[in-house]
Design a protein that fits this description.
It is a single chain. Helix content is 77%, strand content 0%. The protein contains eight helices and no strands. The longest helix has 29 residues, at 166-194. The relative contact order is 0.10.
């Protein structure tokens, strides 16, 4: 899921202030909320729980200045409501995808096109990964290396190794992923034009 940009500093500050007046407590709540949202997305069968959690924070950041002054109750409930909307969007996307039951296995030209598309995507991904500097490559590879609890611990260690917070790590990886996605799209467009 491609997103426009990372959360602007002033929006992040307002989100933290909304979560709790004590900045340190607010930071811990922010990290815990991101983790909780990722769990919700995982439980609901969404394909990119971490990315969708990032998307929740991106969307809240765009609205926080107008919502916060009039919102009553726990701010985390607003984040959960945004997450529920994303889940609904995710379900709609799944419904628009073609299921395997609708595919005729005797249609060879379609299968060849899919194999060719997959090969092009893989080739473009490899090409775009080579454009990353060694720090970016190491960061993106290590960020997605583990699963479940090991993933959380691994990301904390990775953030310490780079001398940044987990939140900053998440933003950096988000930016790297965004640039990779754009690079892959450009590569695929170029391949399509060359046919």
């Amino acid at each position: 899921m491609a997103r426009d940009s990372a959360i602007p500093t002033e929006s992040l500050e307002e989100i933290l202030a909304w979560l709790n007046a004590d900045r340190e407590v607010a930071g811990a709540m922010y990290v815990q909320l991101h983790h909780d949202l990722a769990k919700i997305f995982l439980w609901r069968g969404c394909s990119d729980p971490e990315g969708l959690s990032d998307e929740v924070f991106d969307r809240v950041a765009k609205k926080v200045h107008e919502v916060r002054p009039t919102y009553e109750g726990d701010a985390r409930n607003y984040f959960r409501a945004v997450a529920n909307n994303l889940i609904k969007e995710n379900i709609k996307k799944k419904k628009t995808h073609l299921s395997l039951e609708d595919v005729d296995p005797l249609e060879q030209p379609q299968a060849e096109t899919e194999d060719e598309t997959k090969a092009n995507r893989e080739e473009c991904l490899q090409s775009c990964l080579q454009e990353l500097n060694s720090e970016m490559w190491e960061m993106i590879q290590a960020y997605y290396a583990k699963e479940k609890q090991a993933k959380i611990e691994n990301r904390s260690k990775l953030a310490r190794r780079f001398g940044i917070s987990v939140g900053t790590l998440r933003v950096k990886v988000h930016r790297i992923r965004g640039s990779l996605e754009k690079c892959i799209e450009r590569c695929l467009e170029l391949k399509a034009r060359q046919k």
